[in-house]
Amino acid sequence: MSSDFESYEQDFGTTTAELTNKIGRIPKLSGEEKTQLILNVDKQLEEVRELMEQMDLEVREIPIQSRAMYNGRLKSYKQELEKLEKDFKRSRIAYSDEVRQELLGDDGGSSEGQRAHLLDNTERLERSSRRLEAGYQIAVETGARAREVEGEVYRRHIGCCISLLCS
C-alpha cells in the first residue's frame, strides 16, 4: 500500500512543480491568455485536492506502526497545497509592471498632485466627521427630550387615573 502512496507522492511533486511555474506566470499575462491559464491552474488544483484525498485514504490503510510517518508527510503536502492556493489567489489579482504603470501613471511630478488630492480628501473626511458628530449629538439630545416627554405623559396619565379613582 505504501507503494501507492509513493506513486501519489510523485504525482503530487510533478503537479505542484507545474502549478508553481504556472502560478508565477499569471501576473505577467493579460486578456484571454491569462483567463485560460487561470482556468487551467484551477483545474489542476482540483486534481491535486483529489490526489490529497486519495493519499489520505491510502494512509488510513497503512498499518498503525507506519502510519505516523505517512501522516507527517501528508500534513506537509496539505500545507504545501494551502500555500499554492494562497499564491494562486494572489497571482490572479496581481498586475504586471506595465498594467501597474498604466493604472498608477508614471508621471514623476504627480506626487505633488497626489499630495494635494490627499489633503483635499482629508479635509472632506474631517468635515464629514464633524457633520456626523453633530448629527449624533442631535440624536442623543432628541432621545433625551423624548424620554422627558414620555415621563411627563406618564405622570399626567397616572395623575388622571388617580383622580378618576378618587372621585
TrEMBL record:
GO cellular component, one term: Golgi apparatus
GO molecular function per UniProt: SNAP receptor activity; SNARE binding
Subcellular location: Endomembrane system
Keyword set includes Membrane: yes
Coiled coil: 34-94
Signal peptide stretch: none
Swiss-Prot/TrEMBL keywords: Coiled coil, Membrane, Protein transport, Transmembrane, Transmembrane helix, Transport
Family membership noted in the UniProt record: Belongs to the VTI1 family.
Domain Vesicle transport v-SNARE N-terminal: 1-91
Gene source species: Oryzias sinensis (Chinese medaka)
Membrane topology: Single-pass type IV membrane protein
Name this protein carries in UniProt: Vesicle transport through interaction with t-SNAREs 1A
Any one Gene Ontology BP term: intracellular protein transport
Principal location class: membrane
Coiled coil among keywords: yes
Family matches, as Gene3D superfamilies: 1.20.5.110, t-snare proteins
